[in-house]
Give the backbone structure.
Amino acid sequence: MSHSFLIEPGRWTLQGSWLARDLLPITVKGKILVAWNSNDWFTMVTKLIFPNGELDDISLQYKGRIV
């Protein structure tokens, strides 16, 4: 299955359940931002929060180039 939408420029909001072994589902919310510059480099920033405080928030930042 192709997931090219993951690197399309834009902003996404997500909401759902975090699933982990031996734990009940945990509510998670977040945002993903993807931006491109003119040299075919992209930046993707992801922020996940757990509103009920069961887990620490997760922040990720990726930079890459697709040629």
Summary: The radius of gyration is 14 Å. Residues 43 and 63 are 5 Å apart (CA to CA).
